[in-house]
Amino acid sequence: MFIYGAALAALALAAEALETGNALGGVPTSLFVLGVALLFAALGIWLGMELVPRPAPTPFVRNAPAVKALGISPRECAVLNLLADGASNKAIARQLAISPNTVKTHVARLFEKLNARSRTQLVRNARELRVLP
What residues does each domain of the chain span? Predict the structure, then answer.
């Protein structure tokens, strides 16, 4: 609450400074009005961003029917998740405790199942089908 009070006080001081400049003839009335409008518009935007509750992000739910229809195994899902994170075949093999050749086999099968020609296309197709977040 202190921040909101401080922001309002700062805006009130700025408006007072503009008003004083206007009264002394140094600031034209149109610029005074524009300055006050911009100050309070900025306050409104800031308060709106701070006070309006944001909806909680929905957790990702894998499209199980698509996974089943495509015949993607749980291990292939794990490989796909790591591919989406940008991991290399060697890194995937280390993390899943399998050989790099097994990773290559899983990736090749995923290319077939998701009708992709590159890793980027593979991840994009998986996301479109909600197989990946």
Answer: 2-51, 64-128
pLDDT tens per residue, the chain (133 residues)?
Answer: 577 677 777 777 777 776 676 666 666 767 767 777 887 788 788 878 888 888 888 898 989 999 999 999 999 999 999 999 999 999 999 999 999 999 999 999 999 999 999 999 999 999 999 999 8
Asked if CATH classification 3.40.50.1260 holds for the domain at 64-128, the reply, yes or no, is no
Which residues are CB-contacts of 20 (< 8 A; sequence separation ≥ 6)? Answer: none
pTM comes to: 0.59
- The alpha-carbon radius of gyration of the chain (Å, integer) is 28
